[in-house]
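Researcher: Good morning. I'm working through a list of sequences from a screen, and I'd like to move beyond sequence-only analysis. For each chain I'm collecting a predicted structure so we can compare shapes side by side. This is the next one on the list. No need for commentary yet; just the structure.
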Amino acid sequence: MTLELRGITKRFGALVANDHIDLRVEAGSIHCLLGENGAGKSTLMNVLYGLYQADEGEIVLDGVVQDFAGPGDARRAGIGMVHQHFMLVPVFTVAENVMLGHEQTGFAGRLDLAAARAKVREISERFGFDIDPDAVVEDLPVGVQQRVEIIKALSQRAKVLVFDEPTAVLTPQETDELMAIMEQLKAEGTAIVFITHKLREVRRVADTITVIRLGKVVGQAEPTATNAELATQMVGRAVELTVQKAPATPGAPALVVENLTVVDDNGLKVVNDVSFTVHEGEILAIAGVQGNGQTELTEALIGLQSAAEGRVSLGGRELTGLTVRQALDEGIGFVPEDRTHDGLVGEFTIAENLMLDRSTGAPFVRAGSVQYGVLNAFAEEKKAEFDIRAASIQTAAGRLSGGNQQKVVLARELSRDLKLFVAAQPTRGIDVGSIEFVHKRMVATRDAGVPVIVVSTELDEVAALADRIAVMYRGEIVGIVPGTTSRDTLGLMMAGERPEGIVE
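Model: Good morning. Structure tokens for this chain:
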């Protein structure tokens, strides 16, 4: 089946998310949509899948114009979509999830689960998935859950399959397996649209690359193009993709974590007996698939989570049991993984967000009153220093792009005298240009002698920044290895294996 999008335009109020986009995807090919976050890629695919209605333009399948009132119409026309955030019911079995929305019934109107199980087995055998139809989805690893999403789409005989940022939660090995599955689907004649901003993946599988910037198609690229060429098309300027940093010169031990255990509301150990040390002037990256205790670990360092056991000290001063306010006052800078919920107050201005850590005293508050002259001068200085792109410092933070929101958080946290800097997913959801800036600031912080902890699920980022790497799996540290450790070894560790030769 050949897919054509002709002049697709989608507006949200004054914002034009898609601006007269043309796209053609041939049967038996992989067409990559490449662009920054917020470029309009997912919006375009949501129009194709019937989740949004286009304001202008048309969808054409094998020469026939389509009119999708919703996802059901798109599925019946042969379009399937594997979403970035899985659309699965955790407590249902694989078979129940696959039949959900198009249930077959047998005698007396009873659900025909046997037919759903047979469909799961048939597709699993075809692609070598090895999935039990009766397995409960919440008990499956994320890589297997993604295969369930693919089975769901294929069970409806999808001839056009959209993968929306499919590798965000996968280990490197699971990513390789997904690439192989896409190649197999392509060989069977499926037209595949692959949405991503990861240049390595694009160059590996793409037959055709369309680059979208600010809602418009800005050009086509060849899979043979270099990462630098692709990044330039995405952002509109040359981007330095390699982090330039001298070898670390670690100083004295600074942060010491000993036998730290954190228990969740259900009594489960989400951080289990974790110990490590971070020295002055080094970056320790904590790698792992999302959901293996990294979030709880960083929150325990700042006082957002309570330690059930163990202790944490910084420069010899005990941190265990401190409130968040007290931890900040000890000199910890903290970039949370969700900037919109935990890092910013969207209704506050840029200037107001820049004083959140210091809202009770000098230099911004005196005798209970905000010193707006001092605050505004500070905010203007940081706006320029961190290249925060906004009309003014009075712009509400919620109106900024993701990259500029992250710069506000970084400007606030890095503008204090720090004894420790902790950054969780520091470049999640931001474009390659902003990533370049964030990485430079983090290296500069290390070079100033501050110990830095970076938590990231992106192995390219871990490899670029880390002096040492701690890999977490199911709440425990599998091992701590040099920053030069190979992706293959890290991938095995992220899956819970402990390769030979790891002694830490």
